[in-house]
Design goal:
It is built from 16 helices and 24 strands. Helix content is about 40%, strand content about 25%. α2 packs across α6 and α3 packs across α14. It is α+β, with helices and mostly antiparallel strands.
Length: about 450
């Protein structure tokens, strides 16, 4: 790609002298505490530079996402129409029961997020997961962008570069309202219920959303599934009837803890309340969705342009099973390939989060890999080809000293109504598993930057 972010990064780091870094670190620490920007007890951000993308970078990212989202939507439609295609996603029986219910609108995942690795200066872009169930980070990203725009380190930089933040929480509100209006056939302002367990580490983001929704004129409650009541055809939290659920609780945890008789589940199955994302989001949320896209047996589901985008942007991915398949232009036995190519492969549970259960072949010995494969063939897993992880230099203050370190950069564009991208979650880490939940990362705001 012709555009480069090297110059803005170099200029920012040149301007970040040690006194400016100390001032910025102290200022940021205070503001993070004031605004509750913590993941559990950890500050959301521990570095002193935002992510920079050029206009060309961002336009390219959105365009490529659009092509792949069309392919994901076609895969979802095929799964709902064909038992054979649906079987490839490896759903549990209870999940099949829930997705059979009509949610009252077409979109399977009105709110979602694509997780990728993007080398901005070369255009190398690889999508490794599709978070189609409970994507987090939109409110966090907006709040961090506000802070970084006022960061002492940005003062001089802002004289040389124009910075465009990528706000996204307004899209969340618009999608929730539009989804409810489609579901209900009504206009007006629905009461929004943000539903998740009270003890989750992302409660601070729920509070940011509640403040924002309220400022926009909407009643919003934060509720724990254990405290919901379903009476007389209405689901309520703390006595407040809910029109639409902004679902942050994981469906698997909801069923595991409450079963099919849980009040929220009963209200949804009765059509008494709307929810985004609906139970059908589980189809594309399965990591097997990337296998469905990249598997040669599904090529006919997609257009030539989509197939080209899949080949370019989705690493070779298959559900772990005893079969023959194609790999690098030849037909192979999948399990034999998995054993032989350990250092080029990663194993992932079909439905988990936060890096749980992921096995990196290049960090595992042969016996450990064989053991992981035995688990993977019994319980739904995918095997995915290793990709190159891009890194950039990020500054931080360590023991009062300015330190520059190369950190792996994860790019996770926010997706709305399954069709368009706006805003981007960026996570940086010194570990191969770039995930804040896993405890090794930092979230930073993303800006589109141009020389003044």
């Amino acid at each position: 790609m012709p555009a480069t972010v090297a110059s803005p990064i170099d200029d920012y780091l040149r301007l970040l002298t040690e006194p400016v870094a100390r001032e910025s670190a102290g200022w940021l620490e205070e503001r993070l505490a004031q605004r509750g920007l913590f993941f559990g007890t950890r500050p959301l951000c521990n570095v002193l530079r935002p992510r920079f993308l050029t206009t060309a970078n961002y336009d390219f990212l959105r365009a490529r996402c659009g092509l792949l989202l069309g392919a994901f939507n076609q895969a979802l439609a095929a799964a709902l129409a064909s038992p054979a295609v649906l079987a490839q996603f490896r759903l549990h029986d209870w999940e099949r029961t829930l997705i059979a219910d009509d949610p009252g609108f077409i979109e399977g995942s009105p709110l979602s997020r694509l997780d990728a690795f993007f080398t901005a200066d070369t255009g190398e872009l690889q999508f490794t997961e599709y978070n189609a169930e409970t994507p987090a980070g939109t409110a966090y990203g907006d709040a961090l962008a506000e802070l970084f725009l006022a960061l002492p380190a940005m003062r001089e930089f802002g004289r040389q570069y124009a910075l465009r933040p990528l706000p996204a929480r307004h899209h969340v509100l618009n999608v929730l309202v539009d989804t409810w209006r489609t579901w209900s056939g009504r206009t007006g302002r629905p009461v929004i219920g943000i539903i998740d367990w009270a003890e989750v580490p992302t409660v601070s983001e729920f509070e940011l959303f509640q403040d924002y929704f309220t400022s926009m004129g909407y009643t919003c409650v934060i509720g724990d599934p254990r405290n919901l009541e379903y009476r007389n055809g209405k689901l309520s939290s703390g006595g407040v009837p809910i029109d639409i659920i902004y679902k942050r609780v994981l469906i698997s945890e909801l069923i595991e803890r409450g079963g099919m008789d849980q009040p929220m589940v009963r209200a949804l199955r009765d059509g008494a309340v709307c929810m985004a994302n609906p139970f059908r989001c589980k189809i594309l949320h399965k990591k097997a969705s990337l296998a469905v896209l990249s598997d040669e047996r599904n090529a006919a589901l997609f257009t030539a342009e989509q197939r080209s985008a899949i080949l370019r942007h989705i690493p070779w991915t298959r559900v772990v099973e005893d079969r023959r398949t194609e790999f690098e232009g030849r037909t192979v036995d999948l399990m034999e390939l998995a054993l032989a190519e350990r250092e080029r492969m990663v194993l992932k549970p079909n439905d988990d989060y936060g890096g749980h259960g992921i096995v990196l072949g290049w960090e595992t010995d042969a016996s450990g890999w064989e053991s992981a494969l035995r688990v993977a063939i019994r319980e739904p897993h995918i095997i995915q080809q290793r990709i190159a992880l891009p890194s950039e230099s990020f500054p931080s203050l360590v023991d009062g000293q300015l330190v520059l370190a190369d950190r792996i950069v994860d790019t996770a564009p926010f997706v709305f109504n399954g069709s368009y991208v706006d805003g981007c979650l960026t996570r940086v880490s010194t570990a191969a598993l770039v995930n804040v939940t896993a405890g090794g990362g930092s979230t930073v705001p993303t800006f589109v930057v141009e020389k003044r």
